[in-house]
TrEMBL record:
<feature type="domain" description="HTH cro/C1-type">
    <location>
        <begin position="7"/>
        <end position="62"/>
    </location>
</feature>
<dbReference type="InterPro" id="IPR001387">
    <property type="entry name" value="Cro/C1-type_HTH"/>
</dbReference>
<dbReference type="InterPro" id="IPR010982">
    <property type="entry name" value="Lambda_DNA-bd_dom_sf"/>
</dbReference>
<protein>
    <submittedName>
        <fullName>Helix-turn-helix transcriptional regulator</fullName>
    </submittedName>
</protein>
<dbReference type="Pfam" id="PF13560">
    <property type="entry name" value="HTH_31"/>
</dbReference>
Length: 401
């Protein structure tokens, strides 16, 4: 089923006609009709989230996630989900280490090397390769965290937080949001056991990510604001990690406010993030936040898209030096947002070029994103252009009928 067909199914289950749904979301009957028939793509999470809320369903019921593909490479790590699920269950239950038996874990130094290598796979959106190594990293850390003492406990829990973050990202991307929640729960425990304000902020930053994926925008906003309040007293220490997390949390708040269609608040948080980023390293990536000046500008493009300001998307995208961020996932995200803005401006050929560029950078990221899939589906059916055949091939890879 298409996203529009799923919207229609959820509407009918409530016993509503199109006029009732239109009234509930403040749109016209024509708009609802175009969404349900696929003539209008749902290329903004703000709109998908609003529809899910009024229809009383989870976002994934409208998006149809998780998506499965024919090859293991394009399947983007789905084969690892059973092992990842078990590892996260063991990591979050009391006494989970006992279930693994009497095993001697590798040294924290060795695990740290493996975590760092896995983080590179996560930034490059190579989720199949990440899925091959992450469950075992988590299992080793379960035991390491159980036996560690003193300074080693803080080191072990910091590594657990970083590994759980990767589990959260891959789970949410693939549409397994329950696993994303389990992963971030373990992050929050890690932060408390390590008694670290930075780890606590990193875990809360990730919790906002879970709620944004699930369409729980108000909860994400409230957590971001609470985390900012808690971080503010620590800003005076001039600690670079704390300042990076402060900026990253403002970016979370900006996205949340944009999905609530509050431009003033979104732009205010975006401005503060830019201010902080200007004084931090250009390649900053504290706790995998990729908080740096380039990512702040990528967020400005996303904010304009979610607010429904396509001209701002294009003007802001022209200012992003996207090749200077060391993350294929972030580069791909930028090109997807740009493509959506170009399509909203009636620039179908440019949009096709941008979405194809996104797919070339990080195909596993693009092919699992509902908004990217809806955009490809719309491009395929919107008429011929110089990239039509390439778009059709991409639609075939995405299993779009």
């Amino acid at each position: 089923m298409s996203t529009g067909q799923r919207v229609a199914r959820a509407r009918r289950r409530l016993g509503w006609d199109q006029a009732q749904l239109a009234a509930a979301v403040g749109r016209s009957v024509s708009w609802v009709s175009k969404v349900e028939t696929g003539r209008l793509p749902l290329d903004r999470m703000s709109v998908l989230g609003q529809l899910a809320e009024v229809l009383d369903v989870e976002v994934i019921e409208l998006t149809g996630q998780p998506y499965r593909h024919d090859s293991s490479e394009l399947d983007s790590g789905h084969a690892a989900i059973p092992g990842l699920r078990l590892a996260l269950q063991q990591a979050t239950m009391p006494g989970g280490a006992l279930l693994l038996g009497a095993v001697e874990p590798p040294s924290l130094a060795e695990i740290s090397v493996r975590v760092k290598a896995a983080e590179r796979l996560r930034q490059d959106a190579k989720f199949t390769a990440l899925g091959d190594v992450l469950p075992q990293i988590l299992r080793d850390l379960i035991v390491a965290c159980d036996i560690a003492e003193g300074d080693d406990l803080s080191r072990a829990e910091s590594l657990m937080l970083r590994a759980s973050h990767m589990a959260r990202v891959s789970s949410n991307l693939l549409g397994h949001h329950d696993l994303g929640w389990s992963a971030v729960q373990r992050e929050l425990v890690a932060a408390e056991r390590a008694e670290s304000p930075a780890l606590r902020a990193a875990a809360r930053w990730d919790l906002c990510g879970v709620w944004l994926y699930e369409g729980e925008v108000t909860a994400a906003r409230d957590m971001a604001l609470r985390a900012l309040d808690d971080l503010e007293p620590d800003l005076s220490t001039a600690d670079a990690d704390i300042r990076s997390l402060w900026g990253a949390m403002h970016l979370r708040a900006a996205v949340a406010w944009s999905r609530l269609w509050d431009r003033s608040e979104a732009e205010s948080h975006l401005a503060e993030a830019r201010r902080i980023a200007a004084d931090l390293p250009a390649d900053g990536n504290v706790f995998q936040t990729q908080f740096n000046a380039v990512n702040a500008e990528i967020h400005s493009v996303e904010v304009s898209l979610e607010l429904g300001h396509p001209r701002d998307v294009l003007s802001r995208s022209e200012l992003v030096d996207v090749m200077h961020i060391a993350s294929g996932e972030r580069q791909s995200h930028f090109w997807v947002c740009t493509a959506a803005g170009q399509m909203m401006n009636g620039k179908a050929e440019a949009a096709a070029g941008s979405i194809l560029r996104a797919d070339a950078v990080a195909p596993q990221h693009v092919r699992n994103r509902p908004v990217a899939r809806n955009l490809v589906d719309d491009l395929r059916s919107s008429g011929r252009n110089a990239r039509t055949e390439e778009i059709r091939r991409l639609a075939g890879h995405m299993k779009l009928s």
